[in-house]
Automatic annotation (TrEMBL):
<dbReference type="Pfam" id="PF14467">
    <property type="entry name" value="DUF4426"/>
</dbReference>
<protein>
    <submittedName>
        <fullName>DUF4426 domain-containing protein</fullName>
    </submittedName>
</protein>
<feature type="domain" description="DUF4426">
    <location>
        <begin position="33"/>
        <end position="149"/>
    </location>
</feature>
<feature type="signal peptide">
    <location>
        <begin position="1"/>
        <end position="29"/>
    </location>
</feature>
<dbReference type="InterPro" id="IPR025218">
    <property type="entry name" value="DUF4426"/>
</dbReference>
<keyword id="KW-0732">Signal</keyword>
Length: 149
């Protein structure tokens, strides 16, 4: 039951972000790190959680073996969206590394970054993302386990 509730919360959270809405403090799926002058919000989820229309719009291939990493970089002081260059890698527990290619998406005042990550069932990744706006450089590190839906 808890797993089903978590999946619904994750789906709702990812759809809100893709629809240019930011997570509220009550969203269970939200993860945030304060890095330097930024609040960095991030989430990883299965690409099957998004609709075919949204996937097509963002050039994401929906597959039970594709994950999506979504990152927003906000100014810590006023919470405005920040433009930056994101580069990253995802390393599984066997040490196999995959390069993450982030695409910047701007919708109104919102800016977020999307990367697709192929995975195997129950594969855990240690994800490292370098965020650089030309003035400041920070590294976001987190871990996520993907499940085939």
């Amino acid at each position: 039951m808890f797993l089903a509730i978590s999946k619904r919360a994750l789906l709702a959270g990812s759809m809100m972000l893709l629809a240019n809405l930011f997570f509220s403090g009550a969203a269970l799926a939200e993860q945030k790190e304060t890095l330097g002058n930024w609040d960095v919000h991030y989430i990883a989820f299965n690409s099957t959680f998004i609709t075919p229309e949204i996937a097509k719009h963002y050039s994401i291939i929906r597959s039970k073996y594709n994950g999506v990493i979504n990152i927003s970089v906000l100014d810590k002081a006023d919470q405005t969206a920040q433009s930056a260059v994101l580069t990253g890698t995802a390393r599984n527990l066997l040490g196999v590394s995959k390069k993450l290619t982030f695409k910047e998406v701007s919708e109104g005042e919102a800016i977020y970054y999307l990367a697709v990550l192929p995975f195997s069932d129950q594969e855990t990744f240690r994800i490292s993302v370098e965020i650089n706006d030309g003035l400041e450089q920070q590294v976001l590190n987190f871990q996520h386990k993907f499940y085939v839906e």
